[in-house]
What does this fold into?
Amino acid sequence: MTVTRVAIDHLRRAKVRRAAYVGPWLPEPHAGTRLELAESVSMAMLVVLESLSPLERAVFVLRDVFDVGYAEVAVAVDRSPEAVRQVAHRARAHVRERRRRYEVDDLVRGQVTGRFLAACVGGDLAGLLELLAPDVVMWADSNGSGEMPRVPLHGVADVVAFFARSVALYPPGTTYRLVRLNGAAAAVLSAGSEVLAVVDLDLDADSQRIAGIRLVRNPEKLTRI
It folds into this structure.
């Protein structure tokens, strides 16, 4: 119970700090998770959880991820069991509205991620155009550092224009490698020993084109990669 309350207080303080964050905010990428519930720790799912209030997030994680009983959750968050059921119902509704409507095979995700990074690093704009869905959205988390856009980019034209400008900014010897981060296929962009960015993609299940790009560029979030 005490741990849960401390966690909720921490989330509330983090939400206040995030209000001063410059540009889009994305969860910190991490590797080596031992959780079997990959969807529960994926970058996309963590972004969804960020849309919940601290109380909703605590109840959802305890009840729906770890299958803790309503009575135990009620004690942990200092609410009645009926109140917890209402919070859980509300949290599930928010998650259903925002989570991925489809899942793509992780092998396919890795293949598309590799093609995407090869096109970006190589300046292959034609190849990039073939990979992007018409309504693609890109979020770049840099906390205002570097040349990253401070608002989400919507549509093929804006996304391709950004990567066209970025080619000249890659340091000499920039490479990428495919990895598993947050329970799913992703990629790390680096130059020598310096990690430049982490890239996480959402794919359209029907066309297997890229529908969402999450680019983590904030150096403070890349120290453990």
About this structure: The longest strand covers residues 132-141. Confidence is low (pLDDT under 50) at residues 33-39. The CA atoms of residues 56 and 90 lie 8 Å apart. Residues 81-98 form the longest helix (18 residues).
